[in-house]
Amino acid sequence: MKNSNHSPSIDPISIKAVAGVQISPSPAKTSQSIPIKQIPVGPKPVNNKIHIREQKGYFQRLRTSLNSLLIAAFFLLPLIQYQGRQAVLFDLNEQQFYFFGTTLWPQDFPLLAWIFITAAFLLFFITAFLGRVWCGYLCPQTAWTFIFVWIENRIEGGHNKRRILDKSPWNRDKIIKRTSKHLLWGLIALLTGSGFIAYFVPATSVYPQIFGFTASPMLTAWVWFFAICTYINAAWMREMVCLHLCPYARFQSAMFDANTITVAYEPSRGESRGPRKRKQATELGDCVDCNLCVDVCPTGIDIRNGLQYECINCGACVDACNQTMDKFGYAPNLIGYRSENHLKGQSNKPLTSLKFLGYGIATMVMLSVICMDIYLKKDIQLNVIRDRQSLYRETLDDKIENSYTLKVRNKTQSEKHYRLSLSGDRPYSLQKNVDLKIKAGEQLTYPITVYSQANGAIDKGTPDVHQVKAGMARIVFQLRDTQDPSNQISQDSNFFTP
Questions:
Q1: Which of 57, 307, 414, 495 has the most beta carbons within 10 angstroms of its beta carbon?
Q2: Per-residue pLDDT tens for 328-387?
Q3: Domain that holds residue 452
Q4: Into how many domains does the chain fold?
């Protein structure tokens, strides 16, 4: 017995759509129906390796230039000498970070934290405006991957030849090509590992020791660790790092809006796509379905299917499509850098985007914090430690003495001369002038004894002795650079009296 009240109703249109049968909606439901795009689903190929087709063009020249600058800076920065030492060096043994004459100590690492936070907001700001342009043009993973692909093209040939070589049986030619390729890959990976460690160990010793086989086991282990990571990432994983390991690909969409400029296909102009001969009259769209945009894509996607998180905005598909459009005499930028507003025929208005303005304001605030932190950064570090064994001592000449230990660190890369002075609630004195000579990066421990008259007033301008706060008074230790009086630091402490 059929129960119409309790049995679920099933739309026959949904059943046929799932089954892959294309149907036309009834006229009565045309306004409410959602167009269904059928994508054939077949068995996954056994070997789904992406063989990137080499592409030339404006955006590829731009990417190659920026990648070359990035790689050159990576290798050359540790080789630059400044003021007698490596210009950029994270010295883990001495716990110092040298950067072109500026020395940062562990106490200054909040400044590095501000720099990293600012870099993150700057990345968000650029992403809100230009999408994943960082991934396509400046990401180290992209740069090293294209280096390895370039070597692969030079040795094994183009993408079609590499596919044939993959399927061919092992013979002398294949062994020579594969061995040569992997040896060059390994050499570049080893250079990369050495270059990375050169930021932590002086570069003048890293390269001779590694390639002269005289490095310590610890140094060798770290260099080979980063070399193996480079080899695996750039030679084998490649786009898998972008698709599955990089978190940026996952949360980038949260920064996009209708004003964000990304690589996009213009369906209103390109559809319906289809092959044709040059100068052939046709009612088809401008897309000739050459599939070059897929062949040149480092992540293997079809940009014509819309915005996808796998796209790294490298512009390879733009150059490939423009090349085809030029051959057929069509207007360029069927695939190009454009926003959702552009596709809708509207103009871009990034200043109306709260995300764009918010990230921009946050970046400016963080830059201001960095500038303020750098401006307030002192080249001297002073710690005053009181003698905790005795609060005070009375001398035979009617004086009160307190003992202190000064810990002074010269945070610069040159020797400094400092002079100590005292001030505070009482008139204080020392047995002699304290002049400190501290070498670059050295911390000096200096014990001193401070004296004050037993009947001294707290304030020199106050004649009433009874206004003195019994038992404790304020004392200020001040260190001043004798060559640069503006370079000074002070710290308060307590002076105990009976």
A1: 495
A2: 999 999 999 999 888 888 888 887 888 889 999 999 999 999 888 888 787 888 899 988
A3: 380-496
A4: 2
